[in-house]
Amino acid sequence: MFSLFLALTFAVVLMTWAELSAPDRPARRAAAPAPGPTPAPEMTAVPAWPGASAPPPAPIDETEALIARLTAALAAAPEAPAEDLPRVGDFAPGDRIELELPAGVPAPRAIRFAPSPCGRDSIALFDETAELVIENTRPETLTPAIFEFRSLQAA
To answer: Contact, 116 vs 85, CB < 8 A?
Structure first.
């Protein structure tokens, strides 16, 4: 046990000696006394940080394209909040939805589907007006053929 203690002590002494006599460090010398009080640097109201006067970096073309796409997507968002719209639940592929619209039957090209703000549901847009929420269905899986329209006068 004593030999282990002696070996560890010798190893610590050698490590300390090697660190203090490393060639990359300058030799320690006695510090010269300071010549007198040094004047305090003048303080400015705003510190001058390196590069503070440099203009901000120019935006990357990819960033501008992304912002343009997001702006277009937000502009195409449905007008009515999804909470105020009628909802269709338990919709499965192959199901059909029968609707009665007072404004008449929209053309199939005027019907499109957008994702809801929650991301799980789809919002049916007729002539860019939100009309219906289809729950738990992705908009990519829907087509205008799922709708059957009936006029209110025939009812």
So the answer is: no
